[in-house]
Structure formats: structure tokens, C-alpha cells
Specification:
By secondary structure, this protein is mainly alpha-helical. Helix content is 57%, strand content 0%. The protein has 5 helices and no strands. Helix 1 packs across helix 2 and helix 2 packs across helix 3. It is globular, with a radius of gyration of 14 Å.
Length: 98
């Protein structure tokens, strides 16, 4: 019986070339440039604008489970830089919501 290979969470964006709303594209380039992964930057920017995990996943095309894997310190995909950037995105979302 063959074993299925685990799905690799890489930086390749599933919808390369799609258009994001302009305010999200602006944030991708401006605020999160220290995050090398386009996929992660797009999720962060979408969250900063929308304020919701589900909506950010929908806008960016990133599965919400990937976001939680990047945040979870026990996950093999944990990314401390992403966690810090998400705190920044959460602050921005809060400011926009006021």
C-alpha cells in the first residue's frame, strides 16, 4: 500500500496572477515586505483590510488552516516573523474598524 505524501505548505501562490482589491495590493507591497512569502503577505494584507480570518482567506486565496499553522508554535510550519506581522495586521484591522 502506497503512502500519500504530506501536502507541503510552500510559498507558491495557488492563484498566481489574480487581482486583489487595490487597497489590499497596496498593503502587500507597503506593510509586509519583510515577509518573503507572497502568499503570507497577501493573507496579512487581506486580514488588515477585512478584520476577519474567513474573509482574509477568501480574498487572498489562502486556506485559513495555513494561517493557523504559521501562528501555532507547535506546528512544523510555525513562522515567528509571520506571527509578529499578524499582530501588526490585527492592530491595523482594529484601527480601520474604529
Amino acid at each position: 500500500m502506497k503512502r500519500k505524501a504530506k501536502k507541503k505548505l510552500d510559498d507558491k501562490h495557488p492563484d498566481e496572477g489574480k487581482r486583489l482589491p487595490p487597497q489590499i495590493e497596496q498593503l502587500v507591497g507597503d506593510l509586509f515586505q519583510d515577509i518573503p512569502s507572497l502568499k503570507k503577505r497577501e493573507f496579512l494584507a487581506a486580514y488588515a483590510v477585512s478584520g476577519g480570518i474567513g474573509r482574509a482567506a477568501q480574498l487572498s486565496g489562502v486556506d485559513f488552516k495555513s494561517h493557523y499553522n504559521w501562528l501555532n508554535a507547535d506546528s512544523p510550519w510555525h513562522d515567528p516573523a509571520y506571527a509578529a506581522a499578524f499582530a501588526k495586521a490585527r492592530e491595523i484591522a482594529g484601527d480601520l474598524g474604529e
